[in-house]
Amino acid sequence: MTIATLVKTIQDIMRKDVGVDGDAQRISQMVWLLFLKIFDDKEQEWKVTIKSYKSPLQTRFQWSSWAADSEGITGEELINFVNNELFPALKRLATTAGVSAHGKVVGGVFEDAYNYMKSGTLLRQVVNTIQNDLDFNSSSDRHFFNDIYEKILADLQSAGNAGEYYTPRAVTQFMVDIINPKLGETILDPACGTGGFLTSAIDHLKKQINNSSDKDILNKTIFGVEKKPLPHMLAITNMMLRDIDVPTNIRHDNTLSRPLKDYGPKDRVDIVITNPPFGGMEEYGIENNFPKKYQTRETADLFMALIMHRLKYDTGRAAVVLPDGFLFGEGAKTTLKKELIEEFNLHTIVRLPKGVFSPYTGINTNILFFDKGGTTKNVWFFEHPYPEGYKSYSRGKPLTIEEFEREKKWWNKRKENEYAWKVSAKDIEAKNFNLDFKNPHIVEITHRAPEELMKEYEEISKQLSATRDALKMELMQALGSSK
Protein backbone atom coordinates (compact mmCIF):
# COMPACT_ATOMS: atom_id res chain seq x y z
CA MET A 1 0.00 0.00 0.00
CA THR A 2 1.36 3.45 -0.90
CA ILE A 3 1.63 6.32 1.58
CA ALA A 4 -1.17 8.28 -0.04
CA THR A 5 -3.39 5.19 -0.13
CA LEU A 6 -2.78 4.33 3.53
CA VAL A 7 -3.44 7.86 4.80
CA LYS A 8 -6.45 8.23 2.50
CA THR A 9 -7.87 4.88 3.68
CA ILE A 10 -7.61 5.97 7.32
CA GLN A 11 -9.05 9.40 6.68
CA ASP A 12 -11.91 8.04 4.55
CA ILE A 13 -12.93 5.80 7.47
CA MET A 14 -12.79 8.76 9.85
CA ARG A 15 -14.91 10.93 7.56
CA LYS A 16 -17.83 8.56 8.22
CA ASP A 17 -17.56 9.26 11.96
CA VAL A 18 -19.83 12.06 13.25
CA GLY A 19 -17.40 12.91 16.06
CA VAL A 20 -14.48 13.95 13.86
CA ASP A 21 -14.85 17.47 12.52
CA GLY A 22 -12.38 18.53 9.84
CA ASP A 23 -8.87 17.62 8.72
CA ALA A 24 -7.09 18.85 11.85
CA GLN A 25 -9.09 16.50 14.13
CA ARG A 26 -8.66 13.60 11.69
CA ILE A 27 -4.90 14.13 11.69
CA SER A 28 -4.77 14.44 15.50
CA GLN A 29 -6.75 11.21 15.84
CA MET A 30 -4.47 9.38 13.41
CA VAL A 31 -1.30 10.63 15.13
CA TRP A 32 -2.14 9.37 18.63
CA LEU A 33 -3.05 5.98 17.21
CA LEU A 34 0.23 5.85 15.25
CA PHE A 35 2.13 6.86 18.39
CA LEU A 36 0.70 3.96 20.42
CA LYS A 37 1.51 1.51 17.63
CA ILE A 38 5.07 2.84 17.39
CA PHE A 39 5.51 2.79 21.18
CA ASP A 40 4.34 -0.82 21.27
CA ASP A 41 6.76 -1.84 18.51
CA LYS A 42 9.59 -0.03 20.32
CA GLU A 43 8.69 -1.84 23.55
CA GLN A 44 9.19 -5.18 21.80
CA GLU A 45 12.70 -3.95 20.92
CA TRP A 46 13.44 -2.59 24.43
CA LYS A 47 12.48 -5.88 26.07
CA VAL A 48 15.40 -7.42 24.17
CA THR A 49 17.93 -4.57 24.35
CA ILE A 50 17.28 -3.09 27.82
CA LYS A 51 17.98 -5.34 30.77
CA SER A 52 14.96 -5.71 33.09
CA TYR A 53 12.86 -3.34 30.95
CA LYS A 54 9.39 -2.91 32.42
CA SER A 55 6.56 -1.24 30.52
CA PRO A 56 5.06 1.84 32.20
CA LEU A 57 1.68 0.72 30.83
CA GLN A 58 -0.52 -1.87 32.46
CA THR A 59 -0.79 -4.89 30.19
CA ARG A 60 -4.40 -4.17 29.19
CA PHE A 61 -3.44 -0.65 28.03
CA GLN A 62 -0.67 -1.84 25.72
CA TRP A 63 -1.50 -1.72 22.00
CA SER A 64 -0.72 -5.42 21.60
CA SER A 65 -3.41 -6.24 24.18
CA TRP A 66 -6.39 -4.20 23.00
CA ALA A 67 -5.62 -3.24 19.38
CA ALA A 68 -3.47 -5.94 17.75
CA ASP A 69 -6.22 -8.56 17.46
CA SER A 70 -8.31 -7.60 14.42
CA GLU A 71 -11.21 -9.56 15.95
CA GLY A 72 -10.80 -7.80 19.32
CA ILE A 73 -13.17 -5.43 21.11
CA THR A 74 -15.18 -3.12 18.89
CA GLY A 75 -18.34 -1.00 18.86
CA GLU A 76 -19.56 0.57 22.09
CA GLU A 77 -17.21 -1.59 24.16
CA LEU A 78 -14.14 -0.17 22.35
CA ILE A 79 -15.28 3.46 22.67
CA ASN A 80 -15.99 3.02 26.39
CA PHE A 81 -12.58 1.41 26.90
CA VAL A 82 -10.70 4.18 25.04
CA ASN A 83 -12.57 7.10 26.62
CA ASN A 84 -13.06 5.84 30.18
CA GLU A 85 -10.05 3.60 30.79
CA LEU A 86 -7.22 4.02 28.25
CA PHE A 87 -7.05 7.82 28.02
CA PRO A 88 -7.39 8.50 31.78
CA ALA A 89 -4.62 5.96 32.45
CA LEU A 90 -2.28 7.46 29.86
CA LYS A 91 -2.93 11.04 31.02
CA ARG A 92 -2.18 10.09 34.64
CA LEU A 93 1.36 9.13 33.63
CA ALA A 94 2.15 12.84 33.18
CA THR A 95 1.58 13.60 36.86
CA THR A 96 2.09 10.33 38.75
CA ALA A 97 5.19 10.24 40.96
CA GLY A 98 7.75 7.52 40.34
CA VAL A 99 6.81 6.96 36.69
CA SER A 100 9.72 5.82 34.50
CA ALA A 101 11.18 8.07 31.81
CA HIS A 102 9.37 6.02 29.15
CA GLY A 103 6.10 6.56 31.02
CA LYS A 104 6.67 10.32 31.25
CA VAL A 105 7.05 10.42 27.46
CA VAL A 106 3.66 8.74 27.03
CA GLY A 107 2.05 10.96 29.65
CA GLY A 108 3.42 14.10 28.00
CA VAL A 109 2.03 13.03 24.63
CA PHE A 110 -1.46 12.28 25.98
CA GLU A 111 -1.71 15.18 28.41
CA ASP A 112 -3.83 17.20 25.91
CA ALA A 113 -4.79 14.46 23.44
CA TYR A 114 -8.41 13.49 22.71
CA ASN A 115 -10.36 10.69 21.11
CA TYR A 116 -12.73 12.37 18.69
CA MET A 117 -14.26 9.23 17.18
CA LYS A 118 -17.69 8.16 18.43
CA SER A 119 -18.16 4.97 16.44
CA GLY A 120 -16.30 2.00 17.91
CA THR A 121 -16.87 0.05 14.70
CA LEU A 122 -15.12 2.73 12.61
CA LEU A 123 -12.35 3.10 15.22
CA ARG A 124 -11.73 -0.67 15.00
CA GLN A 125 -11.39 -0.33 11.20
CA VAL A 126 -8.76 2.40 11.61
CA VAL A 127 -6.88 0.39 14.25
CA ASN A 128 -6.86 -2.70 12.02
CA THR A 129 -5.54 -0.68 9.06
CA ILE A 130 -2.62 0.63 11.15
CA GLN A 131 -1.94 -2.77 12.75
CA ASN A 132 -1.98 -4.73 9.50
CA ASP A 133 0.03 -2.34 7.33
CA LEU A 134 2.78 -0.99 9.60
CA ASP A 135 5.58 -2.61 11.60
CA PHE A 136 7.91 0.01 13.05
CA ASN A 137 10.55 -2.56 13.98
CA SER A 138 11.04 -2.96 10.24
CA SER A 139 13.59 -0.48 8.83
CA SER A 140 11.55 -0.13 5.65
CA ASP A 141 8.42 0.71 7.64
CA ARG A 142 10.36 3.26 9.70
CA HIS A 143 11.28 4.93 6.45
CA PHE A 144 7.63 4.51 5.46
CA PHE A 145 6.60 6.47 8.56
CA ASN A 146 8.89 9.34 7.60
CA ASP A 147 6.94 9.52 4.34
CA ILE A 148 3.64 9.28 6.25
CA TYR A 149 4.87 12.11 8.48
CA GLU A 150 5.55 14.32 5.43
CA LYS A 151 2.10 13.44 4.06
CA ILE A 152 0.52 14.39 7.41
CA LEU A 153 2.33 17.74 7.31
CA ALA A 154 1.18 18.34 3.75
CA ASP A 155 -2.40 17.62 4.86
CA LEU A 156 -1.97 19.97 7.81
CA GLN A 157 -0.88 22.70 5.40
CA SER A 158 -4.00 22.09 3.33
CA ALA A 159 -6.05 22.34 6.51
CA GLY A 160 -4.44 25.72 7.17
CA ASN A 161 -3.02 24.67 10.53
CA ALA A 162 0.69 24.20 9.87
CA GLY A 163 1.97 27.75 9.42
CA GLU A 164 3.13 28.01 13.00
CA TYR A 165 5.18 24.87 13.10
CA TYR A 166 6.21 23.80 9.62
CA THR A 167 9.52 24.83 8.04
CA PRO A 168 10.41 23.50 4.58
CA ARG A 169 12.86 20.62 4.85
CA ALA A 170 15.33 22.33 2.48
CA VAL A 171 15.56 25.28 4.91
CA THR A 172 16.06 23.12 8.02
CA GLN A 173 18.74 21.03 6.31
CA PHE A 174 20.61 24.09 4.98
CA MET A 175 20.64 25.75 8.41
CA VAL A 176 21.90 22.58 10.10
CA ASP A 177 24.55 22.04 7.41
CA ILE A 178 25.87 25.58 7.96
CA ILE A 179 25.77 25.40 11.80
CA ASN A 180 27.48 21.98 11.53
CA PRO A 181 26.79 20.63 15.05
CA LYS A 182 29.32 18.31 16.67
CA LEU A 183 28.46 15.32 18.84
CA GLY A 184 28.35 16.45 22.46
CA GLU A 185 27.14 19.98 21.72
CA THR A 186 23.76 20.85 23.21
CA ILE A 187 21.16 21.77 20.60
CA LEU A 188 17.90 23.59 21.36
CA ASP A 189 14.83 24.48 19.33
CA PRO A 190 12.65 26.53 21.74
CA ALA A 191 9.67 26.44 19.35
CA CYS A 192 10.24 23.01 17.84
CA GLY A 193 6.84 22.35 16.24
CA THR A 194 6.91 18.89 14.70
CA GLY A 195 10.68 18.61 15.23
CA GLY A 196 11.99 19.45 11.74
CA PHE A 197 15.17 21.20 12.89
CA LEU A 198 15.92 18.59 15.53
CA THR A 199 15.47 15.65 13.16
CA SER A 200 17.76 17.37 10.63
CA ALA A 201 20.33 17.83 13.42
CA ILE A 202 20.01 14.17 14.48
CA ASP A 203 20.49 12.98 10.89
CA HIS A 204 23.59 15.19 10.68
CA LEU A 205 25.02 13.90 13.99
CA LYS A 206 24.35 10.21 13.28
CA LYS A 207 27.35 10.23 10.94
CA GLN A 208 29.52 10.93 14.03
CA ILE A 209 28.17 8.03 16.14
CA ASN A 210 30.50 5.05 16.54
CA ASN A 211 29.17 3.22 19.62
CA SER A 212 26.38 3.03 22.21
CA SER A 213 28.11 5.64 24.36
CA ASP A 214 27.94 8.11 21.47
CA LYS A 215 24.24 7.29 21.07
CA ASP A 216 23.66 8.10 24.75
CA ILE A 217 25.41 11.45 24.27
CA LEU A 218 23.11 12.26 21.35
CA ASN A 219 20.04 11.35 23.42
CA LYS A 220 21.10 13.75 26.18
CA THR A 221 21.99 16.75 24.01
CA ILE A 222 18.83 17.28 21.90
CA PHE A 223 16.31 19.71 23.44
CA GLY A 224 13.00 21.05 22.19
CA VAL A 225 9.86 22.75 23.48
CA GLU A 226 6.46 22.96 21.80
CA LYS A 227 3.31 24.36 23.37
CA LYS A 228 0.68 22.84 21.04
CA PRO A 229 -0.29 19.20 21.59
CA LEU A 230 -0.50 17.95 17.98
CA PRO A 231 2.93 19.12 16.78
CA HIS A 232 4.42 18.02 20.11
CA MET A 233 3.02 14.54 19.58
CA LEU A 234 4.48 14.47 16.07
CA ALA A 235 7.85 15.67 17.37
CA ILE A 236 7.99 12.95 20.04
CA THR A 237 7.04 10.28 17.49
CA ASN A 238 9.66 11.51 15.06
CA MET A 239 12.36 11.49 17.76
CA MET A 240 11.58 7.87 18.67
CA LEU A 241 11.80 6.77 15.06
CA ARG A 242 15.27 8.35 14.94
CA ASP A 243 16.35 6.27 17.94
CA ILE A 244 15.92 9.00 20.55
CA ASP A 245 14.16 6.31 22.57
CA VAL A 246 13.26 8.41 25.60
CA PRO A 247 12.74 11.97 24.30
CA THR A 248 11.96 13.52 27.70
CA ASN A 249 13.94 16.59 26.60
CA ILE A 250 11.18 17.38 24.08
CA ARG A 251 8.80 19.17 26.42
CA HIS A 252 5.17 20.15 26.00
CA ASP A 253 5.29 23.71 27.28
CA ASN A 254 5.49 27.40 26.35
CA THR A 255 9.15 28.40 26.48
CA LEU A 256 8.19 32.03 27.07
CA SER A 257 6.19 31.32 30.22
CA ARG A 258 9.32 31.07 32.38
CA PRO A 259 10.97 34.33 33.56
CA LEU A 260 14.14 35.02 31.59
CA LYS A 261 16.13 35.63 34.79
CA ASP A 262 15.39 32.05 35.90
CA TYR A 263 17.54 30.66 33.07
CA GLY A 264 21.01 30.33 34.59
CA PRO A 265 24.37 29.07 33.28
CA LYS A 266 23.25 25.41 33.38
CA ASP A 267 20.41 26.27 30.99
CA ARG A 268 22.71 27.70 28.33
CA VAL A 269 23.29 25.71 25.15
CA ASP A 270 25.86 25.52 22.37
CA ILE A 271 23.40 25.82 19.48
CA VAL A 272 19.95 27.29 18.94
CA ILE A 273 18.35 26.56 15.59
CA THR A 274 14.73 27.56 15.13
CA ASN A 275 11.92 29.24 13.24
CA PRO A 276 9.98 30.96 16.04
CA PRO A 277 6.31 31.82 15.39
CA PHE A 278 6.04 35.29 13.87
CA GLY A 279 3.13 37.59 13.21
CA GLY A 280 1.43 36.54 16.46
CA MET A 281 0.92 38.03 19.89
CA GLU A 282 1.47 36.34 23.24
CA GLU A 283 -1.21 36.36 25.93
CA TYR A 284 -1.21 39.27 28.37
CA GLY A 285 1.36 38.93 31.13
CA ILE A 286 3.92 36.83 29.22
CA GLU A 287 5.94 39.98 28.46
CA ASN A 288 6.44 40.48 32.22
CA ASN A 289 8.76 37.45 32.19
CA PHE A 290 11.28 39.64 30.35
CA PRO A 291 13.30 42.73 31.33
CA LYS A 292 11.59 46.02 30.50
CA LYS A 293 13.89 46.73 27.54
CA TYR A 294 12.53 43.64 25.74
CA GLN A 295 8.90 43.93 26.77
CA THR A 296 6.51 43.42 23.87
CA ARG A 297 3.74 40.95 23.16
CA GLU A 298 5.14 40.09 19.74
CA THR A 299 6.12 36.42 19.85
CA ALA A 300 9.18 36.48 17.55
CA ASP A 301 10.81 39.35 19.48
CA LEU A 302 10.42 37.56 22.82
CA PHE A 303 11.92 34.40 21.33
CA MET A 304 14.90 36.38 20.04
CA ALA A 305 15.52 37.76 23.55
CA LEU A 306 15.32 34.22 24.92
CA ILE A 307 17.65 32.78 22.26
CA MET A 308 20.28 35.46 22.81
CA HIS A 309 20.15 34.89 26.57
CA ARG A 310 20.37 31.10 26.43
CA LEU A 311 23.43 30.80 24.18
CA LYS A 312 26.70 29.94 25.88
CA TYR A 313 29.27 32.72 26.06
CA ASP A 314 32.00 32.58 23.41
CA THR A 315 30.94 29.18 22.01
CA GLY A 316 27.20 29.66 21.44
CA ARG A 317 25.91 30.02 17.89
CA ALA A 318 22.47 30.31 16.33
CA ALA A 319 20.53 30.18 13.09
CA VAL A 320 17.08 31.78 13.29
CA VAL A 321 14.35 32.40 10.68
CA LEU A 322 12.79 35.85 11.06
CA PRO A 323 10.48 38.01 8.93
CA ASP A 324 11.50 41.24 7.18
CA GLY A 325 9.64 43.16 9.89
CA PHE A 326 12.36 42.29 12.39
CA LEU A 327 15.02 43.82 10.15
CA PHE A 328 13.44 47.27 9.92
CA GLY A 329 11.18 47.27 13.01
CA GLU A 330 11.67 49.59 15.96
CA GLY A 331 11.03 49.51 19.72
CA ALA A 332 12.09 46.20 21.30
CA LYS A 333 13.39 45.13 17.87
CA THR A 334 15.89 48.00 17.85
CA THR A 335 17.11 47.02 21.33
CA LEU A 336 17.61 43.42 20.21
CA LYS A 337 19.42 44.42 17.00
CA LYS A 338 21.68 46.84 18.88
CA GLU A 339 22.71 44.00 21.21
CA LEU A 340 23.18 41.65 18.24
CA ILE A 341 25.67 44.12 16.74
CA GLU A 342 27.42 45.13 19.96
CA GLU A 343 27.49 41.86 21.96
CA PHE A 344 27.28 39.17 19.27
CA ASN A 345 28.83 38.52 15.89
CA LEU A 346 25.90 38.78 13.50
CA HIS A 347 27.96 37.62 10.57
CA THR A 348 25.39 36.59 7.94
CA ILE A 349 21.80 37.26 6.88
CA VAL A 350 20.43 35.07 4.08
CA ARG A 351 17.49 36.86 2.48
CA LEU A 352 14.94 34.35 1.22
CA PRO A 353 12.57 35.16 -1.66
CA LYS A 354 8.80 35.25 -1.41
CA GLY A 355 6.90 31.99 -1.48
CA VAL A 356 9.31 29.86 0.59
CA PHE A 357 6.60 29.43 3.23
CA SER A 358 3.62 29.36 0.87
CA PRO A 359 0.78 28.62 0.86
CA TYR A 360 0.13 29.89 4.39
CA THR A 361 2.21 33.06 4.33
CA GLY A 362 3.74 35.27 1.67
CA ILE A 363 5.83 37.23 4.20
CA ASN A 364 9.45 37.74 3.18
CA THR A 365 11.80 35.87 5.53
CA ASN A 366 15.48 35.84 6.42
CA ILE A 367 17.90 33.48 8.16
CA LEU A 368 20.10 35.21 10.74
CA PHE A 369 23.36 33.47 11.67
CA PHE A 370 25.15 34.79 14.76
CA ASP A 371 27.68 33.82 17.43
CA LYS A 372 27.65 34.89 21.08
CA GLY A 373 30.58 36.94 22.27
CA GLY A 374 32.65 39.63 20.61
CA THR A 375 31.17 42.31 18.39
CA THR A 376 30.00 42.56 14.80
CA LYS A 377 32.38 44.26 12.37
CA ASN A 378 30.49 43.54 9.16
CA VAL A 379 27.23 41.82 8.29
CA TRP A 380 27.24 39.84 5.08
CA PHE A 381 23.97 39.64 3.17
CA PHE A 382 23.21 36.90 0.66
CA GLU A 383 20.08 37.19 -1.47
CA HIS A 384 18.83 33.74 -2.41
CA PRO A 385 17.61 33.85 -6.03
CA TYR A 386 14.75 31.95 -7.61
CA PRO A 387 15.73 29.10 -9.92
CA GLU A 388 15.72 30.07 -13.59
CA GLY A 389 12.19 30.38 -14.91
CA TYR A 390 10.58 30.66 -11.43
CA LYS A 391 8.57 33.68 -10.31
CA SER A 392 7.62 32.08 -7.00
CA TYR A 393 7.57 28.75 -5.17
CA SER A 394 4.50 26.54 -4.82
CA ARG A 395 3.59 23.14 -3.46
CA GLY A 396 4.39 21.66 -6.85
CA LYS A 397 7.63 23.65 -7.15
CA PRO A 398 9.07 23.92 -3.62
CA LEU A 399 12.46 25.23 -2.56
CA THR A 400 15.05 22.42 -2.77
CA ILE A 401 18.27 21.81 -0.81
CA GLU A 402 20.24 21.79 -4.09
CA GLU A 403 19.46 25.50 -4.51
CA PHE A 404 21.56 26.28 -1.42
CA GLU A 405 24.75 24.98 -3.07
CA ARG A 406 25.42 28.56 -4.19
CA GLU A 407 25.50 29.78 -0.56
CA LYS A 408 27.55 26.79 0.60
CA LYS A 409 30.26 27.34 -2.02
CA TRP A 410 30.41 31.05 -1.14
CA TRP A 411 30.33 30.61 2.65
CA ASN A 412 34.01 30.07 3.47
CA LYS A 413 35.46 32.23 0.65
CA ARG A 414 33.35 35.32 0.91
CA LYS A 415 33.48 37.79 -1.94
CA GLU A 416 30.94 40.31 -3.15
CA ASN A 417 28.99 39.16 -6.19
CA GLU A 418 25.56 39.68 -7.70
CA TYR A 419 23.96 37.91 -4.70
CA ALA A 420 26.32 38.86 -1.84
CA TRP A 421 27.32 42.16 -0.25
CA LYS A 422 28.52 43.36 3.15
CA VAL A 423 27.55 46.28 5.35
CA SER A 424 29.72 47.64 8.16
CA ALA A 425 28.48 47.80 11.75
CA LYS A 426 29.07 51.56 11.63
CA ASP A 427 26.68 51.93 8.68
CA ILE A 428 24.10 49.82 10.50
CA GLU A 429 24.43 51.92 13.64
CA ALA A 430 24.04 55.09 11.53
CA LYS A 431 20.66 53.75 10.38
CA ASN A 432 19.59 53.20 14.01
CA PHE A 433 20.29 49.47 13.64
CA ASN A 434 17.94 49.01 10.69
CA LEU A 435 19.11 45.78 8.99
CA ASP A 436 16.89 46.08 5.92
CA PHE A 437 19.67 46.58 3.36
CA LYS A 438 18.74 45.90 -0.27
CA ASN A 439 21.02 44.21 -2.77
CA PRO A 440 23.15 47.04 -4.25
CA HIS A 441 23.90 44.94 -7.35
CA ILE A 442 20.28 44.93 -8.50
CA VAL A 443 18.71 47.93 -10.21
CA GLU A 444 15.32 48.29 -8.62
CA ILE A 445 12.48 48.77 -11.08
CA THR A 446 9.68 50.97 -9.78
CA HIS A 447 6.24 50.05 -11.06
CA ARG A 448 4.03 53.14 -11.04
CA ALA A 449 0.25 53.32 -10.72
CA PRO A 450 -1.73 52.67 -13.96
CA GLU A 451 -3.61 55.99 -13.55
CA GLU A 452 -0.33 57.90 -13.38
CA LEU A 453 1.06 56.08 -16.43
CA MET A 454 -2.14 56.72 -18.43
CA LYS A 455 -2.03 60.44 -17.60
CA GLU A 456 1.61 60.60 -18.71
CA TYR A 457 0.76 58.72 -21.91
CA GLU A 458 -2.05 61.14 -22.74
CA GLU A 459 0.27 64.10 -22.13
CA ILE A 460 2.95 62.63 -24.42
CA SER A 461 0.28 61.91 -27.07
CA LYS A 462 -0.82 65.57 -26.97
CA GLN A 463 2.78 66.74 -27.34
CA LEU A 464 3.34 64.38 -30.29
CA SER A 465 0.14 65.61 -31.94
CA ALA A 466 1.11 69.26 -31.47
CA THR A 467 4.61 68.60 -32.86
CA ARG A 468 3.13 66.78 -35.87
CA ASP A 469 0.75 69.69 -36.59
CA ALA A 470 3.60 72.21 -36.31
CA LEU A 471 5.76 70.23 -38.73
CA LYS A 472 2.87 69.92 -41.15
CA MET A 473 2.27 73.70 -41.01
CA GLU A 474 5.98 74.44 -41.63
CA LEU A 475 6.08 72.00 -44.55
CA MET A 476 3.02 73.58 -46.18
CA GLN A 477 4.49 77.08 -45.75
CA ALA A 478 7.79 75.92 -47.26
CA LEU A 479 6.01 74.37 -50.27
CA GLY A 480 3.87 77.54 -50.72
CA SER A 481 6.88 79.90 -50.76
CA SER A 482 8.70 77.76 -53.34
CA LYS A 483 6.05 78.35 -56.05
What is the strand and helix layout of this fold?
Elements (H helix, E strand, L loop, with lengths): L2 H13 L7 H27 L13 H4 L8 H18 L8 H10 L9 H14 L5 H20 L10 H11 L7 E3 L6 H10 L6 H10 E5 L2 H13 L8 E3 L18 E4 L24 H12 L6 E7 H5 L3 H12 E8 L13 E8 L5 E6 L21 H7 L8 E5 H6 L19 H32 L2
Parallel strand pairs: 1-2, 1-4, 2-3, 4-5, 6-8
Antiparallel strand pairs: 5-7, 6-7, 8-9
Record keyword descriptors for this entry.
single chain; 483 residues; alpha/beta; Ferritin; Rossmann fold; 3 domains; 9-stranded mixed β-sheet; 17 helices; 9 strands; 10% strand
CATH architecture of the largest domain: 3-Layer(aba) Sandwich
Number of contiguous helices: 17
Quaternary state, please?
Answer: single chain
Q: Mean pLDDT across all residues, rounded? A: 87
Report on this model:
With 483 residues, this protein is an alpha/beta fold. It folds into 3 domains: 3-136, Ferritin, CATH 1.20.1260; 169-430, Rossmann fold (3-Layer(aba) Sandwich), CATH 3.40.50; 447-483. It is 46% helix and 10% strand. It has 17 helices and 9 strands. The protein has helices spanning 3-15, 23-49, 63-66, 75-92, 101-110, 120-133, 139-158, 169-179, 196-205, 212-221, 229-241, 299-310, 324-328, 332-343, 405-411, 425-430, 450-481; strands at residues 187-189, 222-226, 250-252, 271-274, 317-323, 344-351, 365-372, 378-383, 420-424. A 9-stranded mixed sheet has the order 3-2-1-4-5-7-6-8-9, with helices on both faces. Helix 12 links the parallel strand 4 and strand 5 (317-323). Helix 2 packs parallel to helix 11 (229-241) and helix 8 (169-179) packs across helix 9 (196-205). The chain starts with a helix and ends with a helix.
